[in-house]
Write a structure and sequence with these properties.
The chain is built from ten helices and five strands. The chain is α/β, with parallel strands linked by helices. The protein has three domains: about 5-35; about 45-90; about 125-235, Ribonuclease H-like superfamily/Ribonuclease H (Nucleotidyltransferase, domain 5), CATH 3.30.420.10. The protein has a five-stranded mixed beta sheet with strand order 3-2-1-4-5, with helices on both faces. The longest helix is centred in the last third of the chain and has 16 residues, at about 220-235. The termini are far apart. One of its GO terms (biological process) is DNA integration. One of its GO terms (molecular function) is nucleic acid binding. This is Putative transposase. It comes from Rhodovulum visakhapatnamense.
């Protein structure tokens, strides 16, 4: 006999079919009575499965690791092995592959579309986005722009050759320490904004983060309107300095 469940089933058949005692049946099969009498005490995961399915339906691009961060951020106590087991049992491992096949036939709306309502006050909404450019010698750099949607200013602009998700989390933490926490942060679905570092930092600081629909940059139109003039202004200059202080135009 292989698994304990198979041993329990065989012992039950011996007891019912041959009117054999449990002790005798265990001796014939070679099973321990303590393992046969042991009953699994796994907690009920129905509520957790429901939350996991809801998070996977809202964040369709997120895999098991990022969904685990979201569950931990919402207050659920579980390790990664339990999240992976529930993730596989719910059949969520192949959902992104099926979504690609559906998109070839016709486009489907991802969830509900609702306007993002904010108050007319400072730090109500911070749209953030990246701008890329290169120097005259061909070296590329990126600028992380943080825009004040209501005040029409740029409280932060970080330039570097490479900006990762951890760097974005550190810069936002430093900016919040200076300017205060915003009501909501709006960004696209780039890997820097959907990384585990951003999810964990947003959960610890209780920041509200809104992701626009994939392929819809017009939903973050204020940030695009800010990046456009800055991009054209830099293209007209003859030299480019790594520091973003001379580029602050608002």
């Amino acid at each position: 006999m292989g698994t304990p469940a198979a041993r329990r089933e065989a012992i039950a058949q011996f007891e019912q079919g041959y009117e054999m005692s449990e002790r005798r049946a265990c001796c014939l099969i070679g099973a321990d009575r303590s393992s046969v009498r042991c009953r699994h005490r796994r907690p009920d995961d129905r509520d957790l499965r429901k939350v996991l399915r809801g998070a996977a339906g809202t964040r369709r691009r997120f895999g098991c690791r990022r969904l685990h961060v979201i569950l931990r951020r919402d207050g659920h106590v579980l390790n990664r092995k339990r999240t992976r087991r529930l993730y596989r049992e719910e059949g969520l491992s192949g959902r992104r592959r099926r979504r690609r096949r559906r998109r070839r036939s016709r486009k489907r709306a991802i969830g509900t579309r609702a306007p993002l309502v904010t108050e007319a006050m400072a730090n109500a909404r911070w749209p953030i986005d990246f701008v890329q450019d290169q120097f005259a010698d061909g070296r590329r750099f990126r600028i992380l722009n943080v825009i004040g949607d209501v005040t029409k200013e740029s409280p932060s602009a970080v330039a570097d050759a490479s900006i990762s998700g951890q760097r974005v989390a550190r810069e936002l933490t430093a900016l919040i320490a200076r300017r205060g926490k915003p009501g909501v942060i709006v960004s696209d679905n780039g890997t820097e904004f959907t990384s585990n570092a951003i999810l964990e930092r947003a959960g610890k600081m209780q920041m509200r983060w809104h992701y626009i629909a994939p392929g819809k940059p017009m939903q973050n139109g204020n940030c695009e309107a800010f990046n456009g003039p800055r991009r054209r202004w830099r293209s007209c200059t003859t030299t480019c300095c790594p520091s973003t202080a001379p580029w602050t135009c608002r």
